[in-house]
Amino acid sequence: MTFAILRSNCPICQETHHDNYCRTNNDIYLCRGCHGDRAHGFDFVKMTDNLIWGIYVQNNRNKQKREFKARSATVDNKVPDFNAYKAFEASKTLNAIHKNKLIKRGVTDFTPYFSHTIKSDYPFASISGMYIKCLGYQDVTLGYQIAPDSKQLPKYLWASKDGSARIKGEMPVQLAKGENKDIVILCEGILKPCVARDRQQYTFIGAAGGNWVSSKKLIHKMLNAIAPKQIYIAPDANSLNNDSIWLNIQKASQEFNANILDWGQLEDKQAPDIDELPNFVLQL
Ligand SMILES: [Zn+2]
Fold it and tell me: What's the pLDDT tens digit per position in 60-94?
């Protein structure tokens, strides 16, 4: 299957500065900037195995046919070298700019984060940025989410490789273990669960774009190992007004038998997300 480089604005990430990295064959869109994020008019299908592209289809007509084609799409791409990431992770440095950003968000445990520049297999010379390790249950590394420093690059990139603990076809998720393991809370994102854990000490599982169900095997494995007494979902502000995210939340609620939390944020854009709530008390 061949994909042409999008020379005009990518309709998924809508940003002009990295359009040359997004591709389409008209039916299927490969977006470098969005990896399960919400995109108006499009549905996220899955990531490519090398985690470089988010595969999207338009959510209007022939949706099922498109989704089927997108699932079986073969994309010829090199897998970023996971071993290279492992090697430099050993240095465990976090530069002052990245560290200050994390402190501002309320992070107190800096274990999953490090700063680095890597010469990469991506079509960029190098990627400088903050690397966030995605941890699995026994502190195994599932992959890395990279927030590049350059505004010329997508907001997030991913690195992982078969042979890591990641389940084939599933995105890495972030398990942030808190002191309280009786309550597990599903939230959006890879950094957010770590921040929320540092503030509230519950155990959090984060998935990019709230696509928990796209990583259901992995999440079930984690939940089986933790055996919590109660599972909750903490939707971001205004989630009820976003059809695709609300569908993800409902699917996850069913799949993981999880109650949906509402602190007034469901329909209020201005309300805080779970990682911005300082004192959040849940009772079993
Ligand atoms: Zn794009």
Answer: 767 777 777 777 776 655 555 566 666 667 667 89
Ligand 1 centre and the CA of 32: distance in Å? 5
Same domain, 192 and 257: yes
Task: Quote the domain boundaries for residue 87.
Answer: 83-158
Question: Do 31 and 92 have their domain in common?
Answer: no
Together in a domain, 126 and 179: no
Its pTM stands at 0.82
3-state secondary structure of 9: coil
How far, in Å, from the CA of 9 to the mean position of ligand 1? 8
Distance from the alpha carbon of residue 4 to the mean position of ligand 1, in angstroms: 13
Asked if residue 77 belongs to a domain, the reply is no
Q: What is the 157 CA–ligand 1 centroid distance (Å)? A: 12
Same domain, yes or no: 186 and 227: yes
User: What are the distances in angstroms from CA 139 to CA 5, 111, 134, 158, 229?
Assistant: 38, 11, 9, 18, 21
